[in-house]
Structures are given as C-alpha cells and as structure tokens.
Write a structure and sequence with these properties.
The complex is a heterodimer. Chain A is of the alpha+beta class. Chain A has nine helices and 20 strands. Chain B has two domains: about 35 residues, no CATH class; about 200 residues, MetI-like (MetI-like fold, Orthogonal Bundle). Helices cover about 80% and strands about 0% of the residues of chain B. In chain B, helix 3 crosses helix 8. Classes of the chains: A alpha+beta, B mainly alpha. Chains A and B meet through helix 2 of A and helix 7 and helix 8 of B. The complex binds adenosine-5'-triphosphate and magnesium ion.
C-alpha cells in the first residue's frame, strides 16, 4: 500500500539549532500514529512541517505520493487540531465548524448538513449557536476536532490536544478520539509526551528523541522489545544490566553479569561472545520466590527496600554480586515471601539486549 | 477620638476629590444653564428659561456648515489613520521585520510632539510640497496626529491574539488575505472601533493644527473661536452644549467598546 504520508530525509534547522534530523517516516492510511517524546524533541516541528507552517531545511514530504514540501497550508489536504484549540472567538460553534467548508465553496445547505452531522457525532447538536468562550474545555476540544475534520482531510494532525484537560476528562476524550478515528477511518497523527496516552490510543508509536526517531512500532512491541536505553526508560520503567556476552544460541544470549550467569533475548542485535552489552528488564517481568527453584535459573538476593504503591509494591533487591534490581510484586506474591532472603527469576524472552 | 484621627486622611482625600469634581463640573454646568437663559447677559440669576438659543443655532447656516465640514474632516482623518495605523501595527507585530522598534517609535512620535510644533512644521512642510492650506492639509495633519493612537490600540489587541488563530484559518483553506479579513480584522474590531472614535474626537476637537493649516472655511472650533472674539453670547453657550453632549455620548460609547474588548 502507498503510504499516505512520507517524510523523506527531512532535516529542520532553526538557525544553527537542529530541531528535526534525518527524519524518514511512512504512515499507512487509516492508522493512528503517535509521535511520542520529551519536550523539545521535535514533535510539533514535524507536525507543523506536515501542516505547511514550517519549511524543511532539506528533504521532501509526500502526501498521497505527491510532493507537498513547497505547498502553503491552505493547499494541503491535512488539518490540524491545535493544542490551545484556536477556535475563532468571534464565530459561533457552528460557524467555526463551517469555516473550512465555506472556503471550499460548498453550498449553504450542504454546509449546514455537514455541520449538524459533525456536531451530533460529538453530541453537541444544541451548541451550534454558542460562542467558544461559553464552552467547557472538553466541549472546545470536540469543536476543534470537528472543525478540523469538517473539510474531510486525508490526514488529521493533533498537537497535544488533550494536554489542557484534567485527568478524568482526558481519559474520556482518549476513548472518544479513538472511536472517532475508527468510525471515520481517517489517518490520525497525534502528538503527545504522555507515554500512557500513546500506548492506549495508537496503532503505531514513533518515539522521538533530540530530533531523531529512536524507535517506531506497535505499542506492545515497543513496550516488550525496546531497542535503546532511552525507549526502555521513557516507556515504562526498566532495570539496566551491564553484562558480557559469553555465548549466543539462536535468539538467546548467555551473559556474564558480574559473576552471575543470565539469559536474554538478543532482540535483533548482532552480538558475539566477548561483547559488552546492556540488558533491559522490566520490574514487572521479575518474579520472587521464597526458595530456590529446581528447574529454572534464579538469582539469590536480599530485600533492602520496600515501597508500597497501592495495587503493587516495589522491592529493591540486592543480589550477591552487589547489584540491585527493582521488582514489582503484587500483594499475594509478597505475602508468600516469609523472609528478606529470596530468589529472583525471569523468563529469558523478557530480558532484552539493547543496542546502546 | 482615635477613630476620628484614623479616618482623617481618608476624609480629607474624599473631600479633596469632590472639590476637584466640583471645580471640573462647575464651569460646564454654568455654560449649560446659561444656554437656557432667556436674556442676552451671561449672569445669574436666571429668571426666564428658553430654548430660543438652540432654535437659533440649529437654523444658523454657518454653524451647520461648520459641523458638516468638521464631520467630513473627522471622517476622512479616521479612514486614513485607521488604514495607516493598522498597517503599521501589523508591520510592528510581524517577527523578522528589520527595524520594527524604530518604526514603532517613529509612528508614535506625533503623539508626544506638542501640537503647536506639529502645526508649524506641517505648515512649512506643505509649503515645500506645494500643497495649499485647506481641507487636504488639515486632514494630513490630523491623520499624522491620530495614527499613533490607532497603532497603539491595534498593537495591544494584536499582541493578545493567539498566533494559532491565523494558522488555523490558513490550515482550513484561507490564503493570507482571507485569513486577515476573516480572522484578524474581526479580532481587532473592538480595538479599531475604540481607535476610530478616538480619531473622530481628536479631529473635531483640534484647533491649533487646523488654525495653522486651514483655509477660509471654518471648522467648528474655528467658528466658535471667531464668535467668541466678537463677544460671548448665549448662542455660543448653546453651540458648546450641543458639542459637549454629542462628544460625551461618543466618548462613553468608546469606553463601552474598549471595556468589552478587554473582556
Ligand atoms: N520558531 C522556533 N525558533 C527557534 N527554535 C525553535 C522554534 N520552534 C521550535 N524550536 C526548537 O526546536 C526544537 C523542537 O521543538 P518542538 O516544538 O518541535 O518540540 P516538541 O517536541 O513539540 O516539544 P513540546 O513537547 O515541548 O511541545 C526545540 O529545541 C525548540 O526549542
Ligand atoms: Mg510541541
């Protein structure tokens, strides 16, 4: 399938400062794609280049296979939902939504029909005559969304549209947004720095760092198969183990971790015996046992810190080689440990080698 | 006792304020009441009341012509000053334009230059460019004086405008001009109305510039001045009262508009 959006080798400098570097990104039609990354990593810049508000310093951008790098915003078939909504304060809700339709030259009854259709999609039928300053945050958000959807863009761009809402409303809007995306079948490119939001909503998450793509993939892949320290840390939490490879058998590497023998998934990395690497281990992939298991690899350790976190607890366990691991444990498993001296284990596919 | 002492400064302040208000309003009240006095002498007591002076004034061709002429000049000044003022405000508000601060400072200069200096320099200037004294010269001078106020009001409003607003318009298919007309102008409107009313009032009120640059046709202030030269009369009081009430209404309306804009 032809990608609906394609960034080809795009760089963007502001003066001498690099905002986006060597961006190569293809988006399939109908996907919910999220750009995720810390503040200042170039998410908005990427979106604004696609919207036509910034020009790449080099590289090309394609929409439906056609180059759009030089087109002004009004000539591109993409629409943006702005972070602060940017509703026109002098126009009613209905006229806001109709704005793009009027500029397309639609007849007034067609505009009216489409406007009420969109308003009913978000249950705001009775609000067409209201002015934007008479709406709540969530309602403004919905109007902004509908205004951007009205002209039927090929791709909808959303720049942190939920960041101004409180936690409850935010969750509700996440679900609503996702369902609108599914009913309309549109391609959504969504920007956020909230990893949970990215994981819940997206088909594809693009993790960005310092203007570069760190890794992209399905949410579960990103979570269980992070490729870099940055990704493993930015999405969820991780223990990092610096270890030396002693042998590789297929997908499984055997490593020497300061005197302990451990196993880990090579995670697509090319490694050979003698390489020093980092292994990432999720706290929730680790399990604790009161006694040494007979059939599996386990490491002896001692609980040095317990932090109660409600649904689970976080234990810091010191191993016999002096290293510490953070383990997430549920109350039932915790109650079965009768002393601080325990054994720790994990499935070898849950430990992954990182490239850095 | 202590209570009284504590309140003394406050009492003094309040009393001072009301004295000032009285000082402000007394001459105006005097003028207005004399305009209803049925006698030629401007002095108390008023024995008989009349609307005679108003009837005379409203039939006075000279007065009506002067009002029409002043209104025309005010209108032309307002149009010119608004267009130029908004244009300068846009330039000053646009990032990456060279010498923005200098443009702003120069545009605002006429607001602080004394009217007399302004008038004299204008007189010399029109001489140099071979423009005769009269309507065009007056409008030119009034516009130069009014532009800074439009610039400042438009700029203040423009600075509070979210940049995303025009971006959103462009995003929805508007070219820069349509975005300007359909989003920027409506956003500026309250400030523009306030600025325009200010232009009208300063133009109608102006005496010094008009005196130096005018031709034979008198504007309202010039007419009243000429009449006063010939001696005070109840007619002048009536004229002034009409002008006072009209300008006060316009001023209040402007205040209402700017108040709404600030919201
Ligand atoms: N107009 C600009 N002029 C100069 N530098 C800019 C400009 N816009 C962005 N930058 C810089 O480019 C980099 C990327 O900015 P961008 O706005 O894309 O970040 P972001 O990922 O959207 O961050 P946030 O999550 O805070 O919105 C930042 O270092 C920023 O300082
Ligand atoms: Mg941003």
């Amino acid at each position: 399938m032809q990608p609906v959006v394609h960034f080809k080798n795009v760089n963007k400098y502001y003066g001498a400062a690099l905002a986006v570097e060597n961006l190569d990104l293809s988006v399939e039609p109908g996907q919910f794609v999220t750009l995720l990354g810390p503040s200042g990593c170039g998410k908005s810049t990427t979106l604004r280049m696609l919207g036509g508000f910034e020009t790449p310093s080099s590289g090309e951008i394609f929409l439906d296979g056609k180059p759009i790098t030089k087109l002004p915003p009004n000539k591109r078939n993409v629409n943006i939902v702005f972070q602060d909504y940017a509703l026109f304060p002098h126009l009613s809700v209905g006229r806001n939504i109709a704005f793009g339709l009027e500029l397309k030259g639609l007849a007034s009854d067609a505009i009216h029909k489409r406007t009420s259709e969109l308003l009913s999609l978000v249950k705001l039928e009775d609000f067409a005559e209201r002015m934007p300053d008479q709406l709540s945050g969530g309602q403004r958000q919905r109007v902004a969304l509908m205004r951007a959807l009205a002209p039927n863009p090929h791709v909808l761009l959303l720049d942190e549209p939920l960041s101004a809402l409180d936690a409850k409303l935010r969750q509700q809007m996440q679900i609503e947004l996702k369902s609108i995306q599914q009913t309309t079948g549109k391609t959504f490119i969504f920007v956020t720095h909230d990893q949970e939001e990215a994981l819940t909503m997206s088909d594809v998450v693009v993790v960005m760092n310092k203007g570069r793509i760190e890794q992209m993939g399905a949410p579960d892949t990103l979570y269980s198969r992070p490729q870099s320290r940055f990704v493993a840390n930015f999405i969820g939490e991780s223990n990092f183990l610096e270890a030396d490879v002693t042998a590789v058998h297929g997908n499984v590497a055997t490593l020497d971790w300061d005197g302990h023998v451990i196993h880990a998934d090579v995670n697509g990395n090319r490694v050979a015996a003698g390489d020093r690497t980092t292994v990432a281990l999720r706290p929730e992939s680790l399990y604790c046992l009161a006694d040494k298991p007979g059939d599996r690899l386990a490491l002896k350790g001692r609980i040095v810190r317990r932090v109660f976190k409600g649904a689970h607890s976080a234990l810091t366990v010191q191993l016999t080689n002096g290293k510490e691991l953070v383990v997430q444990i549920d109350p039932v498993a915790l109650s079965q440990l009768h002393s601080d001296d325990i054994w720790i284990g994990w499935r070898e596919q849950d430990a992954v080698l990182l490239r850095d | 006792m202590r209570h009284y002492f504590n309140d003394l400064p406050k009492t003094a302040l309040t009393a001072g304020y009301w004295l000032f208000v009285a000082y402000l309003l007394l001459p105006l009240t005097l003028m207005m009441s004399m305009s209803f006095k049925d006698a030629n002498f401007i002095a108390f007591p008023i024995q008989d009341w009349t609307l005679r002076w108003y009837a005379e004034v409203l039939q006075d061709r000279q007065f009506l012509d002067a009002i029409a002429y002043s209104a025309f000049i005010a209108f032309a000044t307002t149009v010119c000053a608004t267009v130029i003022g908004v244009w300068i405000a846009l330039v000053v508000a646009t990032e990456g334009i060279f010498g923005r601060a200098a443009i702003f400072a120069l545009a605002c200069l006429p607001a602080v230059v004394p009217g007399l200096i302004n008038a004299i320099s204008m007189r010399i200037f029109i001489r140099v460019i071979d423009l005769p004294t009269g309507t065009a010269a007056i409008i030119l001078a009034h516009t130069v004086h009014a532009v800074p106020f439009v610039v400042i009001m438009a700029l203040t409003r423009l600075r509070s405008m979210p940049k995303n607003l025009t971006d959103a318009a462009r995003d929805l298919g508007a070219d820069p001009f349509i975005a300007f007309v359909r989003v920027t102008i409506p956003y500026l409107m309250p400030a523009l109305l306030g600025g325009m009313i200010f232009c009208v009032l300063t133009s109608i009120d102006d005496f010094v510039r008009t005196f130096f640059l005018g031709g034979y046709k008198p504007t309202l202030p010039m007419l009243i001045f000429a009449k006063v030269q010939g001696g005070m009369s109840p007619q002048i009081n009536a004229m002034a009262t009409i002008v006072l009430i009209a300008t006060a209404l316009i001023g209040l309306y402007a205040e209402y508009l700017t108040r709404r804009a600030r919201k």
